[in-house]
Design goal:
Blueprint (H helix, E strand, L loop, with lengths): L5 H4 L2 E4 L2 E4 L7 E2 L8 H16 L19 H15 L5 H4 L5 H15 L4
Antiparallel strand pairs: 1-2, 2-3
């Protein structure tokens, strides 16, 4: 089963007019020191969302896993992408989704969007 609480790890909270991230006060860091999630954290998030939407267990996701093989319909897949967008604070245009077939490709696009959002080239 994917790690629980992953969603809270990237959640934003405001305390004393300073924006922090983290799931509890001891783990909070100022937003300006926020680090981009790793590939494995993004893959774990994708697996968590697929699990929540499909309401079934999946074996650990590999980058080569074809998203269509998860057995979710197109609306469920879009819901999973929407959850990922909200969690990561990015936007994945529908036009770009047609070129994404594997978990690894989705992870690449998320990392690109995060880098663009954070001003990293």
């Amino acid at each position: 089963m994917p790690p629980c609480g992953l969603r809270r790890r990237f959640a934003l909270a405001q305390v004393d007019s300073t924006v922090y991230i983290g799931s509890h006060p001891g783990a909070r860091q100022p937003l300006d020191t926020w680090m981009t999630p790793t590939r494995s954290e993004i893959i774990a998030a994708i697996q968590t969302y697929a699990h929540e939407i499909a309401e079934r267990e999946f074996p650990p996701f590999a980058e080569a896993l074809v998203i269509a093989e998860l057995g979710m319909d197109s609306l469920s897949t879009l819901e999973m992408v929407g959850m990922l967008e909200r969690e990561m604070g990015i936007y994945l245009p529908t036009e770009e989704l047609g070129d994404i077939h594997t978990v690894g490709q989705l992870t690449d696009v998320v990392l690109q969007k995060l880098a663009a959002r954070n001003g990293v080239r």
